[in-house]
Amino acid sequence: MTGAATWRDPAWLDPALAWARERLARLGRTVTDPPEQVHVRAWSTAVRIPTDGGVVWLKSVGAGSAQEPPLAAALGGWAPGRVLVPLAVDAGRRLLLLPDGGTTLRASGRGGDLGAWEALLADHARLQVEVAAHADEMVALDVPDLRPERLPDLAAALLADDGALLTGTPDGLDPALRDRLRTGADAYAGLCRALAAGPVPASVQHDDLHDGNVFVTGDGFRFFDWGDASVAHPFLTLLVPLRGAAAALDLPPGSPVLLRLRDAYLGPWRQFAEAAVLRELAGLALLVGPLARALTWHRILRAVHPEEAAPWQASVPGWVAESVAPGPLDGAAA
Questions:
Q1: Nearest CA-CA partner of 331 in 249, 206, 269, 242
Q2: Which CATH code fits 104-322?
Q3: What's domain 4-100's architecture?
Q4: How do residues 233-266 score in pLDDT, each as one tens digit?
C-alpha cells in the first residue's frame, strides 16, 4: 500500500531518483539542480527534475494505478502525436520518466472556451479510434478490463461490498438505494449488453478526462495521466468531461451546449455508425458509466493506506448513487 509517507520516505525516493538519473544519463542528459517533489497524493507522486535539456518529471503511482507506466509507454508507441510519450518506464516499480508537456488547457486560461472543449473531445475520440485495435494488448498489459460484458458481475460484487459502500456510516450508500440497484441488476446488464452489441469497439477509457489532464500544443492536444484508465466501451469517457465542461463553462442543467460537446466527441466515430446510433450508444454509456467510475475509485483506494484513503472513500458510494441521479445530458433536447 502507498500513502504520502511512502512517497516522502528516502528509502523510496532516493532509489527512484537514482533510476531517473541513470535513465537520463542514457539519454545524454544531466540533472542540473535539486529535484523538487511538487505533487504528493496518497496514490501518486510527481517530482520535477531540472536537466540540461529542460525539465523532466518523475512520476510514480500506487498499485491501484499500476497500469499507467506500461499503458503510457504503449500509447506512446501507437499514437505518439496524441499523448505525452514517456522517456522511460519501469513497470515493475510503477515509475515513469516524462518530458515536460507544457501548459494544460486549464492553466492556459482556455478552460472556459467552448471551442477548446469541442476540439479536446474530438481529439480524444481520434486517439481512441486509433488504438482500439490494441484493446486486447492493453488488457495483456494489465490495464483493468471494464468492457461492458464484464461490468454486470463487477458491479454486483461492488454492491455486495459493505466496506466499499461504507455501509452503516454517514457517508455510506443509502440501504434503500442499494436494494433498488440490486433489484435493477437485470436492467443494468441489459444496458451493458446493448453497448457490447453495438458497432463501436472497446478502446482505452481515460476515466478522468478534464482540462487539467491535457496539454495544449501547436497542433492539438497531448493527453496524459492514465492512472484511472481501463479498457472499456470508449463512450464511458464522456461522463467526466461533460460534467467538467458544464462547470468550466457555467452551463445550466440540460444545456444544449452539452449536446454540441457530445456530438463533437462522436464525430470521429462516424466511420462505425450513423449519428443517431452513436447518440443512442452515448446515452447508454452515460447510464452505465457511474458504476464503472465507482469501480475505478474502489480499485485505487484499495491500494492506499486506510488512514489516507479515508477522506476519499465516500467517492465509491457517491459514484454508485450517481447511477440513479440525473446525468449530464438529462433535460437536454436530443
A1: 242
A2: 3.90.1200.10
A3: 2-Layer Sandwich (3.30)
A4: 999 999 999 999 999 999 988 899 999 999 999 9
